[in-house]
């Protein structure tokens, strides 16, 4: 049928060509117009097909790119002529899309549909042709299906990126800063995180609620954002948890190095450049604020007048209020689906204003390795789920304070030949040493306390 129609189409095409030729001779221009109008009418009357032409400037740019994604996915499997584009910073940099004027076919509920990509005067059109009798189904259901499927394909193919703020290009004086991205390929997941299962489940549930919470936040009239404060000693998995969060949510990470942001204005500029579906991370927030404190002290020494100080605050550094504005003010106004994570080793060093509830919605403590955490690490590093030495390790973990980082280091085989038993024994040895050191320290503290009390008496 389509072949027959294609032949008829070429006859109509010839008539259109004739009309265009006649147009160039003024005496025949009226005939030319008639010929063109009637050929068009005849074509649409006779044609058993409908053609819809969608322009890239048709309004909803997102819908157009979703259709493109859907067609690219289909075309790379079916079309004979493809266009290849190379992407930066990806493992599979070649992206294939259908070439101009190449046709690909699709089917929906048994109906055949044909798509052609056409470029006219620098404008791209996606033309779809389908049998006239299915007009309602195609316009009401098929097009929605294509857009939704295209969005889902894009989400599946989305690669997580890690952004860091670095000095702007050409900025010798380091007065400007901009985001630079690399592909984020950290393998951490909640499955491989050494954490008590109940705590893990609670965090995962919280993240799922946030990710699916668009309507919920809108109903509450609150911006779609959530703040997490991760605190605990070094090596307890704070950074690893951020990586697991990004992989779980499929969000980009924006690692904000606050100490290299010169002032509030620069901070604002950076924040405006953050896309949605992102985790904004400020690691070691206590150190960033320390820096602010040190500047304050320095200024006190220089004995500046208060007005001068305020001006300096705006011009020379990121202030606590600038940061709070980012969390509550500007940040809230920037759209949604953003998570902010602060990490610190010292919870008590932080300004209460920064961590009050509502700003940091959830405080998560990451602490020394528990037995449940050890079992996860043993599975990760040795692929072992039970062993006769596990009981001994469980007892020792209760009596010591060893970080998951240290447990992992001891568990890791030192050579290809080293067996599980030897790795577990090394961990037991390290735990016993830590236990001894701990009891020695405690004894010394008790003695010191005794001496002190003795002196007081
Ligand atoms: N809870 C954990 N689960 C799994 N691995 C962990 C965990 N904690 C630490 N590790 C391991 O130890 C290494 C260091 O952990 P990580 O960098 O996440 O610690 P941190 O809490 O961010 O430390 P710091 O306070 O120094 O930044 C990681 O590469 C990881 O292999
Ligand atoms: Mg860290």
From TrEMBL:
Residues 224-370 form the AAA+ ATPase domain. One of its GO terms (molecular function) is ATP hydrolysis activity. CDD domains: RecA-like_BCS1. Keywords: ATP-binding, Hydrolase, Magnesium, Nucleotide-binding. Residues 436-445 have a biased composition (Basic and acidic residues). GO terms for biological process: response to stress. Its cofactor is Mg(2+). Residues 436-457 are annotated as: Disordered. This is AAA+ ATPase domain-containing protein. It comes from Acacia crassicarpa.
């Amino acid at each position: 049928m389509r072949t027959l129609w294609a032949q008829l189409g070429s006859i109509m095409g010839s008539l259109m060509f004739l009309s265009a030729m006649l147009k160039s001779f003024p005496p025949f221009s009226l005939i030319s117009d008639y010929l063109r109008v009637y050929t068009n009418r005849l074509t649409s009357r006779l044609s058993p097909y409908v053609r819809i032409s969608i322009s890239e400037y048709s309004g909803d740019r997102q819908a157009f790119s979703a259709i493109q994604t859907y067609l690219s996915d289909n075309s790379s499997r079916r079309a004979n002529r493809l266009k290849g584009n190379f992407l930066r910073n990806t493992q599979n940099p070649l992206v294939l899309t259908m070439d101009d004027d190449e046709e690909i076919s699709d089917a929906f509920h048994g109906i055949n549909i044909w798509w052609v990509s056409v470029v006219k005067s620098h404008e791209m059109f996606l033309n779809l042709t389908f049998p006239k009798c299915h007009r309602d189904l195609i316009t009401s259901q098929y097009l929605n299906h294509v857009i939704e499927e295209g969005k889902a394909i894009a989400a599946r193919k989305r690669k997580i990126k890690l952004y860091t703020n670095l000095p702007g290009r050409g900025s010798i004086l380091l007065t400007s800063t901009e985001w630079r991205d690399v592909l984020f390929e950290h393998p951490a997941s909640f499955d491989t995180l050494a954490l008590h299962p109940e705590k893990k489940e609670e965090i995962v549930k919280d993240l799922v609620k946030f990710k699916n919470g668009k309507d919920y936040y809108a109903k509450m009239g609150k911006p779609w954002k959530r703040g997490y404060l991760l605190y605990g000693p070094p090596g307890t998995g704070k950074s690893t948890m951020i990586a697991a969060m990004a992989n779980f949510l499929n969000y980009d990470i924006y690692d904000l190095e606050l100490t290299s942001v010169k002032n509030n204005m620069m901070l604002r500029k950076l924040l405006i450049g953050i896309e949605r579906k992102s985790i904004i991370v400020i690691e070691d927030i206590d150190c960033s604020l320390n820096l602010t404190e040190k500047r304050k002290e320095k200024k006190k020494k220089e004995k500046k007048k208060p007005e001068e100080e305020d001006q300096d605050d705006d011009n020379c550094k990121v202030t606590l209020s600038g940061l709070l504005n980012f969390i509550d003010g500007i940040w809230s106004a920037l759209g949604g689906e953003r998570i902010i994570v602060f990490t610190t080793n010292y919870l008590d060093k932080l300004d209460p204003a920064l961590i009050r509830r509502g700003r940091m919605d959830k405080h998560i403590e990451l602490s020394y390795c528990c037995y449940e955490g050890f079992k996860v690490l043993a599975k990760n590093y040795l692929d072992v789920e039970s062993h006769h030495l596990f009981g001994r390790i469980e007892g020792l973990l209760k009596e010591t304070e060893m970080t998951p980082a240290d447990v992992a280091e001891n568990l890791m085989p030192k050579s290809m030949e080293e067996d599980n038993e030897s790795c577990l024994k090394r961990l037991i040895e390290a735990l016993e040493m830590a236990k001894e050191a701990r009891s020695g320290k405690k004894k010394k503290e008790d003695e010191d306390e005794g001496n002190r009390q003795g002196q007081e008496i």
